[in-house]
Amino acid sequence: MKSIMSYDLMETVRNTNEWMGASARAMASYPVWGLTPHPMFKIMSAWGRVTERSFARMVIKPDWGIVSIAADDGRDHLVEVETVMDKPFGSLIHFNVQGREPMARRVLLVAPMSGHYATLLRSTVTSLLPDADVWITDWHNARDIPVSAGKFDIEDYTLYLVDFMKELGPDTNVIAVCQPAPLALVATAYLAEQDPAAQPRTLTLIGGPIDPDAAATEVTDFGRRVTMGQLEQMVIQRVGFKFKGAGRLVYPGLMQLASFISMNMDKHTQAFQEKIWSEASGEATVLDKHYRFYDEYLAVMDMTAEFYLSTVDRIFKGLEIAQNRFEINGKLVDIGKITSVAIKTVEGEKDDISAPGQCVAALDLCTGVPGSMKNNHLEPDAGHYGIFAGSHWRNNIRPLVLDFIDEYADGAEQTSPKPKAATVTPIRKKPRVAPGAAKAAPQV
């Protein structure tokens, strides 16, 4: 599986499907078929349009598409995406709202590097921009990074977060979504010991696998059953000849996408069948709900092999963060060293990727933080994506996170904070179950 030829074969299959869709669309759209009207041609053309677009999106990085926002002054302000810090494997970018005074709330969104681009958090960014200055981590596609740039594992990822936090300063409020939650916690602990003045003011962890063993899911079950050797042989490949990172060992985004889709195959199949029918009926539009979702969902990126494998080995199998024994360059990072950063965790009741109990484990690890500065929210009926996007995020979770940020706006360590509307929600952990058949590799 590690040969360049296998990577290129996978890209060839994708390219062939895109070509087949384009060919079917073009052939079925010839005006001459109007002389012999038949629904087959409309269905073929619709299938071709949907297929061509879907497979083309798999190798296109989405644009942020955030043009402007409305501000308190009653005007629309243009939004400029600017790079603050550029590093080989990731950048720190800022959404500069032109003509607006600096906001009191400064938010660093730590985007997951789990197969999708940071634009997966576009709606999260859009919802925060009217009320905060927002920065985000923009991870780069490993297939476009030359081998000469070196390795990038979870220790390097953590040190990137440390550099980003130092760049923004101590009045920053960090929000880590899903995969980076445990590493954002470690990065904060690293700063607490190495550079306490650079620690963020607050840390909000949303649906992250702090303790994967706290509640079983298909993801954690797969991590238990498969050995590291088997995982390396099954999913690691070398980047093909047409990309700048030719020869680099990666976990391909296309393979991760196949894992994502396999977890809800029936749902995705139905969605595409309905889309093709609506296209054939002339009812679809170029930016309808289907395309808005799948243009983002299908756009995937490769991860470096060392990052993917070290995540599975050290976070899911070794439980190094859950047991507070994570090391960077051979030095233990003690999460208990965090004393002045307010910590909030957010979980979704129906999250089947990071189940309730996995993220809230961070609060027990932060032994140096006063109990009054630790809080958890369990969102009823919310799945994984719902806790950072959609109505659950907009209507319930976002206001709580902003209130949490405001509560510590003075930057002082508070042992007796003012009463707040959000209360700690009791955690209902899922019972541990015996390992069963898993459909997807761990989402890292």
UniProtKB/TrEMBL annotation:
Annotated Pfam families: PHB_depo_C
Region spans: Disordered: 412-444
PHB de-polymerase C-terminal domain boundaries: 207-408
InterPro entries per record: AB_hydrolase_fold (IPR029058), PHA/PHB_synthase (IPR051321), PHB_depo_C (IPR009656), PHB_depoly_PhaZ (IPR010915)
NCBIfam families: PHB_depoly_PhaZ
Family matches, as PANTHER family: BLR0908 PROTEIN, POLY(3-HYDROXYALKANOATE) POLYMERASE SUBUNIT PHAC
UniProt protein name: Polyhydroxyalkanoate depolymerase
